[in-house]
Amino acid sequence: MRPFLKWAGGKRWLADREELPSLAKFDRYIEPFLGSGAIYFHSMPKSAVLSDVNEELVELYNVMKDSHCELYERMCVHHASHNKEYYYRIRSERPLDRIDRASRFLYLNRTCFNGLYRVNLKGEFNVPIGTKASVIFPGEDFITYASALSSAEIIVQDFEVTLDGCGFGDVAFIDPPYTVMHNANGFIKYNENLFKWSDQVRLRDSVERATKRGCAIIMTNADHQSVRDLYKDILEYSSVSRRSVLSGSPNARGTTTEAMLTFGVDWSAAEPKAVDEPATASEIEGDDLLRGTAYSGSREFPAAMP
Ligand SMILES: C[S@@+](CC[C@H](N)C(=O)[O-])C[C@H]1O[C@@H](n2cnc3c(N)ncnc32)[C@H](O)[C@@H]1O
């Protein structure tokens, strides 16, 4: 099953790849950096703890889980009303009702530029309108999403708290914002406003504690020497290649690699998988923007953006 959100750094491309170890043998699935939950929706584990620091994101999941009919009704209103003026009006609103807030979040995710999530220093969502006009997709059924989430515990929480609750029988799929240590000239600054290098170190320490309690780990991360060095004593490294854009142009496709770092997983049980699903240009652009641009805080988009 596919996620209902579009999310920068989303792992939909990994879901069908043979490099993803089987999750079948574990009692409980943990995802401390939830985003769109692409691997969760793909795997559909019996029991799960899903968490993220983004409060509105987690609220949307909980509304989808317990009030999908009301959410769908409000999405129908957004669908019927969508245009440029309506988008900016909804973007400027601060609904007090949780279902209104959740439907606003989902509406903006589906119609903003590349599904990006960015807020200014006041916490106001400030991504411009994108090109997608569909607010509800043909044949989309919110009951399916609600039932996929019915047995999951979905919480607003820093990753460290979530990982400190994991132990034997659990598998944690960990997909943090990709941040690498600065090189000498300070050129590499991927996502540093969002997730600092000190967070990567804190994550490594949390992961190490979890492995000592017997929790299995599947982590994706930047395929960078600083990250490989950080995990070299605790996780097994491999690299996964995927299609990407070169020079910021969706027409100049190339290949990039991401790191896969694991502990205690069962490679022999891996299911036969399909070949890499081609990413859409907008997915690639969204990732590319995030990797090259510190997007939280008050900075504006580069001038080239609409
Ligand atoms: C790369 S995205 C995860 C994408 C997800 N795997 C998917 O398939 O869509 C990283 C997520 O980490 C969340 N995040 C950032 N800092 C965090 C923290 N300290 N604790 C928990 N979540 C955090 C962000 O809100 C974002 O949703």
Terminal Cα span: 31 Å
What does the oligomeric state look like here?
single chain
Total number of helical segments? Answer: 11
What is the mean predicted local confidence, pLDDT? 85
Give the CA-based shape.
globular
Indicate the CATH topology of the largest domain: Rossmann fold
Q: Which band does the percent of strand residues land in?
A: 15-25%
The strands making up the biggest β-sheet line up spatially as 3-2-1-4-5-7-6
* Major sheet details: 7 strands, mixed
CATH superfamily of the largest domain: Vaccinia Virus protein VP39
What's the CATH C level of the largest domain? Alpha Beta
Total count of domains: 2
Number of strands: 7
The percent range for helix content is: 25-40%
Enumerate the spans where pLDDT stays under 50 for 5 or more consecutive residues.
Answer: 184-190, 271-306
What is the H-and-E element order? HEHEHHHHHEHEHEHEEH
Question: Could you characterize what this model shows?
Answer:
This protein is of the alpha/beta class. The chain contains eleven helices and seven strands. Helix 3 crosses helix 6, helix 3 packs across helix 7 (142-149) and helix 4 (68-81) crosses helix 6. The two termini are 31 Å apart. The model is unreliable at 184-190 and 271-306 (pLDDT under 50). The structure holds S-adenosylmethionine (SAM). S-adenosylmethionine binds at residues 7, 9-11, 32-38, 52-54, 158-159, 175-177, 195. S-adenosylmethionine binds next to loops.
